[in-house]
Amino acid sequence: MAFEKAPQRVFPRHPINVPLDLIALRCGVPEDLPGRCTDISEAGVGAVVAGEMSAGQQVAVELRLPNVGVPVRTRAVVRYQSRLRCGLEFVGLSVEQREMIRYWVYRSASEPGSIRPGSIPKDERVGAAETEIHIVTPEPAAAVRRRIRIGRRGFYALVVCALTLAALGWWQWQRTWNELESRPLVAESGLRVSPETMEKRIVTKVDPVYPEAARTAGTQGVVELDAVIAPDGSVKRLRPVSGPELLVQSATQAVQSWKFEPYLSNGQAVEVGTTIVVEFRLN
For labelling alongside 155, which of 61, 82, 212, 256 has CA 20 to 30 A away? Predict the structure, then answer.
């Protein structure tokens, strides 16, 4: 019933069977979706695409028409999709690209045994929500023999937009990763002990070596390290939190060899997290 109620097309579609390549954005990342074009006009195409898309989604389209030397590259909007079959409406199709489609229509109509342009079997019509697509009367051969040129600025603009969205997605991922990195280390026991408590439990403490480069530059200050202390009292993991870069490595190497009295929970030695502060002073 939906087919019968669909509005009459001003310009019928032309059946065609050629490969079709789509570029769609998935979370800001371009994704190539292969497919096949089933019908075409100056307004859009019907296709079978190996991927899910949603109505209103913008994509980049590339297809090569028979008897035309250069591919058609343009933007399109998804108007519907049902069981991998979809309808795409062209956006910003150039005059040269419209001439390419008209030329293909003219050539396919003149070939012996070809399907008459605009005649698509009724069972091939999928969905009533497809975009209105139309056909124009083929022009004389003399009118279509002029040189065909393709404007690529629209296609390149879409690629630039896709790359920009990908960069924004990467930036968002990097910011999230940095936020995760800034969180304190978590011990297996889930316990975190104050720096004052763990300082009282130090059994072996090695003073850091003052880096010569830092001494020459007059660099001093406090290095803060996030640490996980193993059940046997050794330093299991360390991560710098703050402090002068020239001093962080020396502090990390020294604290790595520190030894603590095992921390007991319910009478058993457990792994704990804590913060260790190392101070560097020139005098």
Answer: 82
Q: What is the CATH number of the domain that holds 158?
A: 2.40.10.220
| Contact status, residue 177 vs residue 125, Cβ threshold 8 Å | no
d(CA 196, CA 276): 9
Write out the two tokens for 151.
């404007």
| CA dihedral (153, 155, 156, 157) positive or negative | positive
Cβ atoms within 10 Å of 29's Cβ, excluding its own: 13
Cross-strand pairs, 21: 34, 62
CB 9 within 8 A of CB 132: yes
Cα dihedral across residues 259, 264, 268, 271: positive or negative: negative
Domain count, the chain: 2
pLDDT digits (tens, 9 = 90+) for 37-89: 999 988 889 999 988 888 888 888 898 888 787 888 888 999 888 878 899 99
User: What DSSP element (H or E) covers 142?
Assistant: helix 141-144
